[in-house]
Amino acid sequence: MKQELTFDTIILGSGPAGFSAAIYAARGNLKTAIIDINMFGGQPSNYLEIENYPGFSLIGGFELMEKFEEHCDKFGAEKFPMVEIEKITLTDKVKSIETNDTIFKANSIIIATGASAQKLNIKGEEEFKGRGVSYCAICDGAFYKDKVVAVVGGGNSALEEAIYLTKFAKKVFVIHRRDEFRADKIVQQRAKENEKIEFILNTVPVEIQGTNTVEQIILKNTKTDEQSTLVVNGVFPYIGFSPNISMFSGQLQQNAQGFIETDGNMQTSVEGVYAAGDVRNTPLRQVITAAADGAVAACNAVKYIEQIKELEKV
Ligand code: NAP
Q1: Which among 147, 178, 196, 233 counts the fewest CB atoms within 10 Å?
Q2: Do 247 and 196 belong to one domain?
């Protein structure tokens, strides 16, 4: 028999959107749970440095998320990290999240599950994952001391991680499919000024090859279709993120890329279910916008729960 734990609102995910929602919901007097299938902190925990979160001109991503969690603790949301979720039901009036021994129930759910690194989906990527293919420079960069690595992508993640990898690697190639970058100008400038970084533009990787570990990648010029070989010891794809929605896919309206559709109140297509942060269809995916989404979602969850409680009194 599974135990039942009932809350006013349950927040799924513990990045900036999740913690911000937990702070606002618990402070708004909701019995609040925050659940994550991983350790708390979300994606920013892996960012080396953040320099555009107001109030902190430079702070480590892990440190900032520790501060979010400490702040959340102050208002008493119940925390459930590393939860193995078996089933999520959002479409019933009382929503539920089921594990092997517990059913978490609430009238309102705030989805703040974020997004995960997108795969290149090329030959060799899966085979060499953990043996030269990595999606986390902070976790694995130190393994590439005096080696040659390639970063794929032209956004902030790719260029920031390329700069980070120059602390270890003797050479970092940045492979980008266009000749213009999506990364902020200041980040582009830093990468261009870094002597260890070499750009390979209008180019995509088409295959990762090696024996036990990565030894080379096959590249294709996007303008000429010409192929070439680049000898590297590691490949770090940083080509964006896709939403973490697999556990409840199909229960909410999503856009073509799978990001959850919300209105300005963070209300999804299902009453009582809100989405906040990178998982939703939003024009900007930053710590500050995720935190703001979490606040808006939680304030609307507070109103929704108050309405339900008023109706129950009648
Ligand atoms: P992004 O901005 O979406 O950039 C993805 C890059 O990968 C783009 O340059 C894109 O090329 C390229 N790309 C996409 N699919 C590809 C494919 N199949 N093959 C080759 N290249 C491909 O992703 P991101 O850099 O991870 O950033 C995500 C969000 O987080 C952004 O809003 C970013 O500003 C934010 N962020 C902030 C910080 C910070 O504040 N410290 C750090 C990291 C990220 P095109 O340009 O041609 O589309």
Answers
A1: 178
A2: no
